[in-house]
Design a protein that fits this description.
With 172 residues, this protein is of the alpha+beta class. The chain contains three helices and seven strands. 31% of the residues are buried. It binds nickel (II) ion. Nickel (II) ion binds next to helix 2.
């Protein structure tokens, strides 16, 4: 396993649509392992493959509490097959938007169909933080970012700050 560099916004790759995985092979399993290690190293709760520059429909998540054992999830070709009518607004962040958070409204609960790391079809119904996380990560596979739910003004402010921070880091 290895920690891979995370792409930060603004970056065109984050707007790309990721491609379905044909077969869950060793390369895909290695990618999923690297993604989990990268996510843990960055203190995140979710990560999509495109965030490490791989346009494949793979996501990982782990929303366990700090004092509980890890509950890693690896999802290949995840697809939302049910959404609750109830919607909730929660603060979201993203490893590709370091230090930026914003309220996003989404369905409170979703059911996601996916393939696990052995290629077996699975389904998970999630509420709370996991529901938010899975919807956020699946959005990444369509090139949709949490800031896309914000007003143009709010989105512009965040992107300008990120560009400025990157320039400052490059000049340091
Ligand atoms: Ni994200």
């Amino acid at each position: 396993m290895a920690v891979r560099p995370i792409i930060t916004a603004p970056d065109k790759r984050l707007k790309a649509r990721s491609q379905p995985v044909d077969s869950v092979d060793d390369e895909v399993r290695a990618l999923l392992d690297d993604m989990l290690e990268t996510m843990y190293a960055a203190d995140g709760i979710g990560l999509a493959a495109i965030q490490v520059g791989v346009p494949k429909r793979c996501i990982v998540a782990d929303v366990h509490m700090a004092d509980e054992p890890p509950t890693p999830l690896k999802l290949v070709n995840p697809e939302i097959v049910w959404r609750s009518d109830e919607r909730v607004s929660r603060e979201e962040g993203c490893l590709s938007f370091p230090d930026h958070y914003a309220e996003v409204e989404r369905p409170e609960s979703v059911t996601v169909a996916y393939r696990d790391e052995t290629g077996t079809a699975q389904e998970v119904t999630a509420v709370g933080t996991l529901a938010v996380c899975l919807q956020h990560e699946i959005d990444h596979l369509e090139g949709v970012l949490f800031v896309d739910y914000l007003s143009l003004v709010k989105r512009s402010i965040i992107l300008r700050k990120l560009t400025k921070a990157r320039r400052a880091a490059a000049g340091a």
